[in-house]
Automatic annotation (TrEMBL):
Annotated InterPro entries: Glutathione-S-Trfase_C-like (IPR010987), Glutathione-S-Trfase_C_sf (IPR036282), Glutathione_S-Trfase (IPR040079), Glutathione_S-Trfase_N (IPR004045), Thioredoxin-like_sf (IPR036249)
Domain GST N-terminal: start-end pairs: 3-84
Top-rank taxon: Bacteria
PROSITE patterns: GST_CTER, GST_NTER
Transmembrane segments: none
Alphabetical list of Pfam families matching this protein: GST_C_2 (PF13410), GST_N (PF02798)
Organism whose genome encodes this protein: Pseudomonas fungipugnans
Name of the protein described by the UniProt record: Glutathione S-transferase
GST C-terminal domain mapped to chain residues: 89-210
Length: 210
């Protein structure tokens, strides 16, 4: 008998929301437990046995334990045989995964200092020069997305909504809500309007929680 999906992680986490939005798109039911800052500690021995990185989300189902948010999203789409979210044809799938990997490495890394300083107000991240450099790098990375969206005139990996739009859509929302100077990126604005037509984005992607 298949076990119910359990998601460990607080709903305000951007990486947990990737998984929640994916479940919404797939129609997958789940149980969620609050873990992370303000809730159960991810540094507890119990949690570290599940994820030695002490980070959320973690999922548990009939296949066992899995961590890393983008990997979890790919797993869930594959398990549900959702070729709309994650194509089976190698080239189309690679284009989706390319942008998912870009989000996790290039884009995610670019916002680290600026977001921690400007939204989380961490006293150890208040160097004005580092903040300015972080904002510039973040905006440059978003400029890459602007060019891609201007080319597709639709979604990140092409004409259809995919997993790439879940992970990047959440990142765009984070960029928009951070109090800083931003260039005018019309393709990104139109992209957000398209995402706003999806219940999953309204529920998890544009909720104003960092």
């Amino acid at each position: 008998m298949e076990h119910a999906l359990k998601i460990l992680g607080k709903a305000s986490s951007i990486n947990v929301r990737k998984v929640l939005w994916t479940c919404e798109e797939l129609g997958v039911s789940y149980e969620r437990e609050d873990w992370g800052s303000g809730f159960a500690s991810t540094h507890s021995p119990e949690f570290l046995q599940l994820n030695p990185n002490a980070q959320v989300p973690v999922i548990i189902d009939d296949a066992g334990v899995l961590w890393e948010s983008n990997t979890i999203c790919r797993y869930l789409a594959g398990k549900q045989h959702s070729t709309d979210l994650l194509p089976s044809e190698p080239a189309a799938r690679a284009r989706v995964e390319q942008w998912m990997d870009w989000q996790a490495t290039e884009l995610n890394r670019s916002w680290s200092y600026a977001f921690t300083a400007l939204v989380r107000n961490d006293p150890e991240y208040q160097d004005p020069q580092q903040i300015a450099l972080g904002v510039d790098d973040w905006n440059r990375k978003m400029g890459i997305l602007e060019q891609q969206l201007a080319a597709t005139d639709a979604y990140v990996a092409g004409p259809r909504f995919t997993l790439a739009d879940i992970v990047i859509g959440l990142s765009v929302n984070r960029w928009r809500m951070t109090p800083m100077q931003r260039p005018d990126y019309p393709a990104v604005e139109h992209y957000l309007q398209r995402l706003a037509q999806r219940p999953g984005f309204l529920k998890y992607g544009c909720n104003g929680v960092p």
